[in-house]
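pasting for ref
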Amino acid sequence: MARAKSIKFEMKQKLGSMEYFGHSKHELQQQTRQEQARLMQEGIPFDERRRVDYCKDKVFSRNTMATYQGEISRYGDYLASQGLGKCGMDEAAGHIQEYLDYQSGRGLSPYSVHTTAAALCKTFGKNLQDYNVPKRELANITRGRIGAVHDKY
């Protein structure tokens, strides 16, 4: 009998399969825009057109991949703490909003919560618009922990 894989392992495998380093994101964005324009001419509603995205299941940057791997690792730890360490991808996807609320409740900035949401949505193939993520506002950005002389300007 095969050993059940941890959700953390499954998520890392899924995200790793999206690695697309060295390829042109620009070309795929152009193809996406062309397809969306074609659908618009056919009268397809906006909500359906916006879901066409040829870049959605790809990660083009090594730094983004490293950030997303860290985020899904923390999500896997959270699921394990909730007794869901061996759950499947579908069940784990059902706890995304709960985790985002947990992150917000811990006092993380809206930017940090948004990064978490982006990583989870990429991994599970979801749309960020489907989740309640705190609004990011430029006025609320805090630069570092200690003020610097040039921060006055």
